[in-house]
Amino acid sequence: MEKDLHFETKLIHSSEKHEDPYRSLVPPLYQTSTFAFENAAQGEARFSGADEGPVYTRLSNPTVEMLEKKLANLEGGEAALAFSSGMGAVSSVLLSLVNQNQHILCSKGVYGCTYGLLQMLKEKFAISHTFSGMNSSMEIESAILPETACIYIETPINPTMELIDLELAAKIGKKHGIPVIVDNTFCSPYLQQPLLLNCDIVIHSATKYISGHGDVIAGIAVGKIDYLNEVAMTVRKDIGSVLSPFDAWLLLRGLKTLAVRMDRHCETAEKLAVKLENHPVISSVSYPFLRSFPQYDLAVKQMKKGGGLITITVKGGKEEAQKVMDALKLVKIAVSLGDAETLIQHPATMTHSVIDEKERIKMGITDNMLRLSVGLEAEEDIWEDLSRALRSI
Ligand SMILES: *Cc1c(COP(=O)(O)O)cnc(C)c1O
User: Fold this and answer.
1) In CATH, what number does 2-30+61-255 get?
2) Which band of pLDDT confidence, cut at 50, 70 and 90, is reported for residue 51?
3) Could you tell me the residue ranges of all domains in the chain?
4) What percent of the chain has pLDDT over 70?
5) Which protein residue has the closest C-alpha to ligand 1 atom 6?
6) Closest Cα to atom 8 of ligand 1
7) What pLDDT was estimated at residue 2?
8) How much distance in Å is there from the Cα of 112 to the middle of ligand 1?
9) Mean pLDDT score of the chain, rounded to an integer?
10) DSSP per residue, 76-94
11) Ligand 1 binding site (Cβ under 6 Å of any ligand atom)
12) Interval between CA 86 and ligand 1 midpoint (Å)
């Protein structure tokens, strides 16, 4: 029956069945580290797997499982796993899928800490990586090595907003028997569903749109049961990158409004992107649903709407970019995204400052670039603040 429901309805009702004796409307919060067994035999059966009930919250927890089932359903995957952060999800999935001396093929840009993780994997475990533009079958295939263990993609790429064709990447991954992992944080399952385009694993920083309220750090991975069981019963269990029941409960709460929030984020962002494009001190605006966006056709093909993030470059350099930030009053200077509050950050000195300068410029992250996460305030008020700040340069 769940398969027939619309996305908006699934956000509210999917996987919310529970056996609370009081018929609590909202999922109960099982804020407990361990679960008492009825007797020794039940304990034995839980450990052997003959009885599937919970044992200990680092292995599983009913509130966390409700969240996992809901996200699996929303992304169209067989199963999902929740983690203590987006990086907990990224690192657990990669550590589980990739062995020493293997190789990871990445999109041209990745989240700053993912980049840091890739460096660490290289230094400690001789797991190499390369970045590819992935603009054609040939460009992807020519970057695949005999030891390539997975293809790791962000789209839109943070913060340049360049897109990767997910259907194409999945096709090539299948042809070579290499799983394709997609960090879908920027879109949320409402705007883009990579599993339905044949990709293998979807990762989210649930800290962002899935939470939507800026009060949780969390991560999610969705995909085939086989892959995820492996992640759950090896890396997640033993490294311990698990989500707390309370944070899972907050995410279940935030998720109910994902569709209405995303609609508003996108609607406001699109209006602001058009206005910004016509502003005299701005040299470029990257927003996937702008007609002028170089990959507009691909954006419309694989995304439902343009998203809540806009990247701009101002005329000038770092000094001018920072001047604009300092002149803002309503818009807050902060990293993260997907919150109710509009946030602005300077990738070169903030989220992407760990990347060596030459590599950063190669990724297209320049000193005059600012990334805006459009919040849920009235569009007129955000524009008023932005246009006033832009006048300061
Ligand atoms: C924030 C973010 C992450 C990391 O998530 P955390 O929850 O902060 O650990 C990974 N990928 C992208 C695209 C992000 O925006």
Assistant:
1) 3.40.640.10
2) very high
3) 2-30+61-255, 259-390
4) 99
5) 86
6) 86
7) 56
8) 9
9) 96
10) T-SEEEEESSHHHHHHHHH
11) 85-87, 111, 113, 154, 158, 183, 185-186, 205, 207-208, 217, 219
12) 5
- Residue 59 is encoded by which pair of tokens? 């292995």
Check if 2-30+61-255 and 259-390 are the same fold.
Answer: no
Q: Give the relative orientation of helices 112-125 and 86-97 as an angle to the nearest 10 degrees.
A: 30
Residue 1 pLDDT more than 50?
Answer: no
Q: What is the pLDDT of residues 279-332, one digit of tens each?
A: 999 999 999 999 999 999 999 999 999 999 999 999 999 999 999 999 999 999
Contact 109/154 with Cβ under 8 angstroms? yes
Is the entire prediction scored with pTM above 0.90?
Answer: yes
Q: Whose CA is nearest to atom 15 of ligand 1?
A: 185
Question: Which residue's CA is the nearest one to ligand 1's atom 7?
Answer: 86
CA 388 – ligand 1 centroid, Å: 30
Q: Which burial class, exposed, middle or buried, applies to 275 when counting CB atoms under 10 A from its CB (0-12, 13-18, 19+)?
A: middle
Residue 392 CA to ligand 1 center (angstroms) comes to 32
Residues in the chain, total? 393
pLDDT tens digits, one per residue of 137-190 = 999 999 999 999 999 999 999 999 999 999 999 999 999 999 999 999 999 999
- Whether residue 187 contacts residue 166, with contact meaning beta carbons closer than 8 Å, is answered with no
CATH architecture entry for 259-390 = Alpha-Beta Complex (3.90)
